[in-house]
C-alpha cells in the first residue's frame, strides 16, 4: 500500500504542468545548449543580482516568522550566503563580463520581486517557504540537467549552474520541502498551490524578460 504524498510532493504533482513549462524556457534552453549571447547573459546577471536582494528580504522575513530554532538558523544562514557568496559572484561576474547589461534590464524583470514580496506580505512564513521551494526546485532541476548533460559554457555561466546542482543546494531544497511539510494543517493545500504555481509563473516572466 502506497504511503500518502507529503504536502511538498502534492505541490510538485499539482504544479507539474507549470514546472514543465518553466523547464522549457528559452533562457534554460539556451544556457543548457551553450548558445546564450553575451548581451542576454549580461542582462541576466543584472536582473538576477537584483532578485538576490529580494530573496534576502524573503529569508529575513522567514527569520522573523520562523516556528523553531532550526528554521530560524537555516534562514539566517541563507541571508548570510545571499549577502556574501552570491553577492560576490554577481560583483565579480558583472565586472569581468565582456559587455554591459542593457539599461532597462532590471526594470523589465520586476515581475518576480513584485509577486514574491506581495505574497510574502500576505502570507508570511508559509508563503515564503512555499515560494522559495518552488523557485529552488525549478533551479535544482534545470541546473542539474544542464550540468550533467548540457553544453554549458565555461566560466561564469558554468559556475552559476554548478552552484545550483551541488549537494549543498540539493540539501537546501530538501530542507525547504521539510518546512513546507511541517506547515499547519489548517493552511489549505489549495493556498500553497496558488503560491507555488504563482511563483513559477513569475519565474517564467522574469526569465523571458532577459531577452527584452
UniProtKB/TrEMBL annotation:
<protein>
    <submittedName>
        <fullName>TenA family protein</fullName>
    </submittedName>
</protein>
<dbReference type="InterPro" id="IPR016084">
    <property type="entry name" value="Haem_Oase-like_multi-hlx"/>
</dbReference>
